[in-house]
Amino acid sequence: MPPAPAGKEISVLSTLLHPFGLSLLATAALYLFTLLVVLLFGGAVRYIPNDRVGIVEKLWSARGSLASGIVALEGEAGFQPHVLRGGWHFFTPFQYRVRQMPLVTIPQGRIGYVFARDGRPLPPTQVLAGGRLWNFEDAVSFLRNGGQRGPQRQILREGTWAINLAQFCVFTENGPLYLAMDGGEAELVKQMTRLIAERQGFSPIVIKGTDDLVGIVTVHDGATLPQGEIIAPPVGDDPREPGTYHNSFQDPERFLEGGGRRGRQLQVLVEGTYNINRLFATVELVPKTIVEVGHVGVVVSYTGGTSEDVSGSEYKHGELVPGGSRGVWSTPLLPGKYAFNTFAGKVVMVPTTNFILKWIKSETGGHHYDENLAEVALITKDAFEPSLPLSVVLHIDYRKAPLVVQRFGDIKRLVEQTLDPMVSAYFKNVAQTRTLIQLLQDRAALQDIAGQQMKEKFAHYNLELEEVLIGTPGSAHGDRAIEQILDQLRARQIAEEQVETYVRKEKAAVKERELREAEARAKQQAAMTESEIAITVESNRGRADYQRSVQKAAEIQTLAEAEGKKVLLLADAEAGRIRVMGEAEAGRTAQVGLAQAIAVDEQVRAYGGPRFQVTQAVLSRLSEAIEKSGVDIVPKIVIGGSAGAGASGLGENGSLFQALLALLLSDRMEGGGEASHGKRSPEAEALLAKVRSTLNKAA
């Protein structure tokens, strides 16, 4: 209701003062004083600075008080919907109260939230007030057109706003702005401010491209999800439909009008800046799904409609569905980056390059599929208990990756629940058929056999076995049995290597000898060449000499034939002469021999037989030898002996040679016959005399 005219108030005051007998001048002065007091203390005049607004509260009205709410739209007593801007304002005294409040300022890059104190109440299923886009500076329009009380879906963007802070509470980063009405309200304002700050609601959501993040949106208002659904399907994500396009949850009204539901949304936020009301929707940033080169991503979707199985009738381990349906997608994600909602499903990474599984406790691959694998414990045929380290190289066809995931869940579960017991059992069976030495020596053959036999088993699980690698069997800590076997094998190998070394040395010696012979030949090559040339020359000379000799022989033969005839004639004549002379000489010789024989026979008889004859011959030879040699047989000086013996005598005490002669001649004297009676025969005497004469000459 507009203020009452000031003239009416003055006339009433004059009527009241006139009975007291005051003059007109005094009355005028009193009137001016009273008017000043009324204006100053009755609230009829107020000045509002330009950086503030005035909140008008009507204290009394002929229309009475408000039936509901706190804002009077029909002139009732209560807070008025309009605010006073900067300047002087006049009111009816004692009817209005004006409170100055600051303008609402939202800094650049920040968001403000609005809470309406008056309006239509919210239904039980609604969290935030909304219904349309409002101008919060026009409280009348808000209240007359169905604005709802409570926190609003609509936010305040950058700028300065002249908002009725009795009708609206505004929450900014610098603190809440509102007209305080009672003490209990302050605690509620603090709680709401704290909630918005915890959700970082005063700043837009900024997703940088360098962070490789996506935003998972959870809407806190709207219709609930149907039973069995965990993710709200996308709505209003097509810009070609402006009636429902909510521009990534920045327009809550269109989101709800398009059929959006509360809860986690399948639609995600990618790189960009989003001014989203955090009371309406919160955003959780998660890493993008990155499928590295050498892998594919098999999608297991938790949402979507049911679809027909595309795995085929031969596959009995589950269903594969097309992309967008609930279940395991038949087509994997190829290498790249994907804005995948990890709350709506998961992506199982399957390597498509060769990867190695190590049954070695101390070693683990970068993929960590084999972190729980250990060496295979064996029992050999000869009761040894070695542990066998293994490495298996596998490959998975990217087109079969969904089949593997559908069957086993993930690769690690495949390794631990299927491959580990299968491989361990296979090598345990193999070890029981071989001794420890065979297990050590036949490693290469075992690898080949295992690779061939296990390929079919791996193919049964949609895996491709590339290679099986067997390490050296080991023993438990403190067990030296296997080490002793290895020492024996080493000693055996060393012996074999030594034998081989000796054989090689022998071959090397032979080669060295051949080399030296070759070097010697090379050094003598010039001489050999000269000799070969000389042989050729001599051969040529020989052939020439041979030809000359042939010619000479022919010549000689001719001369010899002539000379032979001549010689033959002379030989015949000479032979006749010699024959005649020989016959004459033979006759003479026969006569002489016969005479000598007769004489010898007589001599034998004369000297006493053959023995004497031999003695005579010896002495004769001896005499001749002494005579020719000129040796002193008889010493010139004789020491000792009798005085009667001469130097040349031959008595009993003569020299040794004389004794020898006496011994030889004594045989003749002692011999039989007629001269054996102590006397020498004349022949002996003559011989002795001859010997003496010879000896004397020698002396």
In words, what does this structure look like?
The protein is 41% helix and 18% strand. The chain has 14 helices and 27 strands. The strands form 10 sheets. The chain has a 4-stranded antiparallel β-sheet with strand order 8-7-10-11, with helices on one face. The chain has a 4-stranded mixed β-sheet with strand order 19-20-18-22, with helices on one face. β10 (168-172) and β11 (175-177) form a beta hairpin.
Throw out a few tags for this protein:
rod-shaped, 18% strand, alpha+beta, 14 helices, 41% helix
How would you concisely characterize the structure shown here?
The chain has 14 helices and 27 strands. It has 699 residues and is α+β, with helices and mostly antiparallel strands. It is rod-shaped and about 245 Å long.
Q: Beta-sheet strand percentage? A: 15-25%
* CATH topology assignment of the largest domain: Tetrahydropterin Synthase, Chain A
Briefly note the structural class of the backbone.
Answer: alpha+beta
The named CATH superfamily of the largest domain: Band 7 domain
* Shape estimate: rod-shaped
**Tell me, what is the CATH class of the largest domain?**
Alpha Beta
Q: Which radius of gyration do the C-alpha atoms yield?
A: 76 Å
Q: Gap between N and C termini, in Å? A: 208 Å
Number of separate structural domains: 4
* Count of extended strands: 27
Number of helices: 14
